[in-house]
Amino acid sequence: MQRMRLFLALCLLLAAGGCAGNGARPGAAVALPPLRLAPSSLPAPLALQQALQFRLGSHQREMVALLESDADAVRLAVQAMGQTGVRLSWDGRQLQQQRAPWLPSQVRGERVLDDLQFVYWPQAAIAAALPAGWQLQVSDGGRQLTHAGSTWLEMRHQADGSVLLENHAEGYQLLIQSQVLEAGDVP
Fold first, then answer.
1. What residues contact residue 45 under an 8 Å CB cut-off, 6+ apart?
2. Pairing mode, if any, of strands 150-157 and 134-139?
3. Where in the sequence is the domain holding 60, given as residue range(s)?
4. For this UniProt entry, which residues form the secretion signal (predicted)?
């Protein structure tokens, strides 16, 4: 029973990782462009513990993530109910994934990486990675990724310091509450 709950929770959270194939969920109007930004394009290292609230339709789940990024690599571990479902490492050339056996094959680390980079990387690095027809619009409250006059991905800073990521192409929301980890706190 616990394994089934873990499976469902990570399926819902990591649907943010997208579906197999072209990167869009079935029936989506558009596939979001991959970012795959160099870790070194982030101006300062990150070390964050994150509480994630994921919503897909009427389903909502809570997860914990540990995120580290420096000039050499981006590293992420997502846990549900005390078990690690996925670990990602991106060095700017290759994405390595360690996945729990119960994690569905449709979960894509590439989408998770792109969402992280959309939220945290500088606007110039994101804009430079976009293919023709895609635009990054930035405001004091956040940023939007648009194509053909529609917003497909957006990030908004919330009053409480959290960040809300809405993926309109794949139909999910992710609320991210981050706490900075000190050097001694990082496992």
1. 68, 69, 70, 71
2. unpaired
3. 2-185
4. 1-20
